[in-house]
Amino acid sequence: xxxxxxxxxxxxxxxxxxxxxxxxxxxxxxxxxxxxxxxxxxxxxxxxxxxxxxxxxxxxxxxxxxxxxxxxxxxxxxxxxxxxxxxxxxxxxxxxxxxxxxxxxxxxxxxxxxxxxxxx
Length: 120
Known about the structure:
This protein is mainly alpha-helical and 120 residues long. Helix content is 64%, strand content 0%. It has helices spanning 6-18, 28-33, 37-41, 46-60, 72-87, 94-115. The model has no long low-confidence stretch (mean pLDDT 93).
């Protein structure tokens, strides 16, 4: 059994390539304090949203459209995965994501221990 499907793996690869697309070299805090053009476009996760839009823009170009052969449903899922992956790179969200992952891990292992046959 695979933990990730083909679309998820594909989204991971593309998200990795796009996660810092057109990075200006200065962090979200600077963007906000300097009232940059990028900051005026996004209220939260300023640079991450900027990177995401640049990734989407690249994929919209015919010569870069590596998702053109996906079904509509696959494309929608792919775009959601890429969005979530890139937005998750905002370090301001790190603590929230980490707590969420720990909770999911706890629930996962509780479920496994409850459903596994007792061998002892």
